[in-house]
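tokens incoming
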């Protein structure tokens, strides 16, 4: 695993605050802020929280709608990653969507966890936020 793929919020005693997250994200702070602003404006019923998970020894950000998990986010060195989990029944919807072919291929070949698979993307530029918006829309369509 490349160093840029390693989640860096592993200290259980350091609770992620905006200031701490922004210090880790550097220039990508603006992308985090844009994503959160977009979600709060367009999905008023969404809520997100940071939680420490002992199984992975990491702090992860979990975005939910009611009881439905929309995505998980983890902080990497100088950026962040967003991961969505979709059930097998979402495959046709995802493959017929306008997502980039590489994401569709990644979903088709992703490791299965029971009946779910992940679509994960690192955030580097504004167009990555647009991609997250598409994935949120797909997640909301699928029951």
């Amino acid at each position: 695993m490349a160093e840029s793929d390693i989640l860096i919020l592993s200290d259980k005693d350091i609770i992620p605050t905006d200031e701490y997250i922004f210090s880790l994200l550097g220039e990508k702070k603006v992308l985090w802020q844009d994503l959160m602003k977009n979600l709060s404006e367009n999905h008023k019923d969404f809520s997100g929280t940071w939680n420490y998970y002992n199984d992975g020894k990491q702090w992860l950000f979990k975005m939910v709608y009611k009881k439905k998990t929309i995505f998980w986010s983890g902080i990497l060195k100088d950026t962040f990653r967003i991961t969505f989990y979709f059930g097998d029944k979402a495959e046709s919807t995802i493959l017929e969507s306008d997502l980039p072919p590489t994401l569709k291929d990644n979903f088709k070949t992703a490791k299965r966890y029971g009946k779910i698979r992940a679509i994960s993307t690192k955030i580097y530029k504004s167009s990555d936020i647009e991609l997250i918006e598409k994935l949120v829309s797909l997640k909301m369509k699928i029951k």
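note: The mean pLDDT is 93.
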